[in-house]
Structures are given as structure tokens and as C-alpha cells.
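Hey, resending since the last one bounced:
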Amino acid sequence: MSQRTLVLLKPDAVRRGLTGEIISRIERKAGWQITALELRNLDQETLELHYGEHKGKPFYEPLVAFMASGPVVALVVEGERVIEGVRALAGPTDPIAAAPGSIRGDFGVIVRENLIHASDSEESAERELKIFFPGLT
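The C-alpha cells again:
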């Protein structure tokens, strides 16, 4: 089943010069296609919409500050089982638990700065794509 998902390469990935490596891993996956890509700085409104469900949790403020600390690369990726697949490619949030070969397993350093965001369900992907790429239908 073909799907569409949001992927964010977070400020640590951009700062560390890993965007090309991460994008190439996505591009090499047979059947997946990047259909939109944009380098942008995230404003407070966008961050609150994206992370609003976490407001009030201890990690919310540090997470929003981190995501506002530099540019991100926002991508729309389409393909067969792409939501599940990109999350597997990213690996678990904890870089120590992430397997070698995954993005976080190969390049992750700490849990909070974990290089990549990928929608976790079709519902999340639909909601997040409307935030970051409102012109897409």
C-alpha cells in the first residue's frame, strides 16, 4: 500500500552535515520517492502545532528549544509501507538501543538530539503533512 509520510532532519543532522547521507539512505530504498523537500527554520507556532500533544511534559520545552536552534530539512516521502519503513530506517530514539545500519544507530549521540523525525502512523502523517506542507493534497 502506497503511503506518504513527513520526515524532518533535525537541527543536529543539519549542523553535523548528515543531511546528504540521510537523504541518500531514503532515496536508495527501492520504491520510495521524495516528493517535496525544504530547508527551513521552524517558528514557535509550527513547533506548538507539531508537538502540542506533549505540552506540559518535562521534555517539551527542551525539545521545542532544540528544534528551534537551527534549520531543519522537511521532506515528504512516498512509497510502499513508507511510514513503517522510515521509522525502521531511523531506528529507536535511544542511539545506544538503535541497531548499526539505522540512522540513529550509526550517527546518534544522545536521546534528545536524535537526528530525524518520521511520522508514526497514517493519522500522524496526515496531520503533520498539513502543518509542514499545507499546499499538498
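The radius of gyration is 14 Å.

Sorry for the duplicate.
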